[in-house]
Amino acid sequence: MLELRSVTAGYARNEPAFDDVSLTVAPGEAVGLVGPSGCGKSTLARVAALLHRPDSGTVILGGEPVRHWRHRAPRAQRTAFGVVFQQPRLSADPRLTLGDLIEEPLRATGRRETAQERVAELAGTVGLTQDLLGRRPHEVSDGQLQRACLARALTLRPRWLICDEMTAMLDASTTAALVAVVESYRSATGAGLLAVGHDRTLLERWCDHTVRWENLTASPTPGNSL
């Protein structure tokens, strides 16, 4: 179980992006979180993925409270998450080829010996041809780069996927293709999913159930939960 309990988080002292929010995602469950731009959804996604330390509250992963964040978190917790962000060009090192981008988590965790086989497997999964793997981000489209970013998120076979506006910059066909990849992965592994976005129709079709941001933040009772 991935749980956020009464979490408050932001980037400036005394100016939280959101306050006293609780959210639960069960193993194998797909939860959609829908809300307008600027409401704090992306900050919540970063907290859930252990990329941003909350100001208060607790994140619980597999029954254990999370005590450290980002590179200080234990490897087992860090690698339990695969994250795909809205803007692939901001989340991809422009110096890396797409193949290197997909391989990056393997290098970071000392698993180079399996890299070539794993990169080829994932490239096929997300619909990238071999010639694209040698190109850098500025040489490919947003959709091709986002395919590589999704492949990178899947490289270490995470137990949880966090998709933060993953399809916001993509056309309908690429959106459908990437959602299909995520669902195929979840079906095969039982991974849980938190999909964040503002397209309620997409999230309701994609996820087991959705929650509106205002239902997390507007309740007069503490610990607004899903």
CATH topology descriptor of the largest domain: Rossmann fold
Query: What level of helicity do the residues show?
Result: 25-40%
Q: Could you tell me the mean pLDDT? A: 91
Number of helices: 10
Strand order of the largest sheet: 6-7-8-3-9
Strand segment tally:
9
Sequence of secondary-structure elements: EEEHEEHEHHHHHEHEHEH
- Contiguous low-pLDDT stretches (5 residues minimum) are 218-226
Strand content range: 15-25%
General form = globular
**Assembly annotation:** single chain
First-to-last CA distance: 13 Å
Structural class: alpha/beta
Integer count of domains: 2
Largest sheet entry = 5 strands, parallel
Could you describe the 3D structure shown?
The protein has 226 residues and is an alpha/beta fold. Helix content is 38%, strand content 24%. The protein is built from ten helices and nine strands. Pfam families: ABC_tran (PF00005).
Please name the defining characteristics of this protein.
226 residues, alpha/beta, Rossmann fold, 2 domains, five-stranded parallel sheet, four-stranded antiparallel sheet, 10 helices, disordered C terminus, nucleotide-binding
